[in-house]
Amino acid sequence: MLPRWSEKWWLVFVCIFFWSNAPTWALAGISGGPNADAIESGAAVEGVTPTIVPPPAGVSVSISPASVTISSGATHQFSATVSGTDNKNVRWKAALGTISAQGFYIAPQSTAQVVDEITVAAVADANKTATATITVSAQGSVTQAIPASFFGLHINELNIPWPTVPFASYRSLDSGDIMWADINPQDGKYDWKHLDPWIAKARAGGQDIMFTLFATPSWASSRGAKALNPNHDCALASRNGPGVCDAPDDLNPDGTGTNQHWKDYVSAMINHVGPGTVKYWEIWNEWNIANQWNGTPAQMLRMAQDAHTILKAADPNALITSPPVVNTQLAAKNWLLPYFQAGGGEYADIIAVHGYVSNPHTVCPESCPVPENVAAILDGIRAVMAATGQQDKPLFDTEGSWGVSSRMNDREQQAEFTARFYLIQLGGTTASRGFDKFYWFGWDYSNTGEFYDPYTRKMTPAGVAYQQIYNWSKDAVMSRCAPSGTRWSCGFTRSGGYEAEAIWDTSQNCVKATCTALNVSVDPKYVRYRDLTGQVTPIINNTVPVGGRPILLENENPN
After folding, report:
1. What are the backbone angles phi and psi of residue 301, rounded to the nearest 5°?
2. Rounded to two decimals, what is the model's pTM?
3. What is the mean pLDDT of the chain?
């Protein structure tokens, strides 16, 4: 250790040394060449000329889109193009929201409209930038009224009364013997006797039709009755024979081949029903489940492409869905994302998913499916749509209810589930707008989703609840549904100053006609509330009972 006076003089000496050599140090550091190592070791360098490498001439960067309007918390995919250099890399920056290295933007959560700006800079020349503006609408804002066209149904039996509840759309799946394997029992032969009455019923009822192109005939299947390894594990094998869930035998795993069986069937369908009869054509059913589809993604893509070509040529107004997936929260990324990345979106006017929130582990009464879980499904699929350029297409939930596997047999619990499941699909979440159409499964099924009991010939409590949700929402402007702890709410407005709010609490429930509820103070502007049976009750002392069954607070009569 040096004495104190030695420390001071030693520090002065060091400062003078570095000060006298500062220009040399700085020049050598700018050069970045071999002399840099010499400076770091303390050697002096004289006469060094700084070398500055200019960025490539003519570098430019552009951004797409240049402006967009999205909701609070929503997402959007931006892209950047760099020209004038081989280095196409860019850096992204957002002023308010967040944006990934790939240009995937997430809007900030905001209770008021804000304008965000993102900047992209070329790595080859950081001075070359482009900007885009994002108008972020307020959290919970929705600008369009809920149309009657949102509401669709499945119907199982033709010989029962056609649904008496209002609905705009009918989906064909599971309506008797009208699938590909039923209609096309032999090569070149078609049987329309089961299909035509269903088409006639829907048209007479005023419903538009979604027809699901699904179920390979066993004679045409790559693993049908004549194959060396027939597939008996398909969901419909006991009814239609082996191989119903497999690709046709003239379609190779890589998507090549004539695919003539499928093309003949699709052509026969559109030629038989005629243009305009079927509004929506759905490509297959739950293709991410092995007992529904046992082919490859390349084969499914080819089938979608061929169907799109045939249907659009015969009926330019036909609307075609993407192949729908189930278990959508996982399937959105594992199935739909690569499908769209492979070009599948080119053959889809509408994105289709199945919104079931049940699975083999959600079995009542111990672990019933939670209707609010459809919010995560909605957010996940909307994010994938944005990431793959599909965000401007309609999003349909073409099948959903509490599900067969849930064993939800309690009638009051079914009504509770129905209302909450519908409200979130209608209103959406804080991050995503709702679905554009939903087909409930179904009207007259005894093992799931039953709105009508064919034995008693009466509406079930779930069917009555559906009718109420329809009345609450049709033609109303609806705000996003959002939780506050265990309490959820969605807002409604109509012309003339009408305001309403659907409210429920997931910590409460209904079992065997016994429903629990909490007394909650509400805004004094609300003077009455409606329940899921249609009963109207005055609000006293600004307090209402809030349970698992949604109620609708109102400031005045909507009529």
Report:
1. -60, -45
2. 0.77
3. 88
